[in-house]
Design a protein that fits this description.
Largest sheet: 3 strands, antiparallel
Helix content: under 10%
Distance between the termini: 26 Å
Number of strands: 5
Radius of gyration: 17 Å
Order of helices and strands: EEEEEH
CATH class: Mainly Beta
Shape: elongated
Amino acid sequence: MPIYEYHCDQCDKDFECLIFRSDDIPECPTCNGNNVKRMMSACGFLSKGGGGETVSRSAGASSCGGCSASSCAGCGH
């Protein structure tokens, strides 16, 4: 069950929602409206080598693309 990002056109807020079925339409947690659109999300990953070292990283479109920290908590973003 994926978590998707949505934008509410009614109150102009962004929110995340866990979706159980692909035809579910979430309700905005701020205004309870259902005029929402799913947004494109960036994802990131780390690939580890046999010794646990990071061999590849991707931060999607985030500003942390060149970050050298071992986790997002490492740089405070």
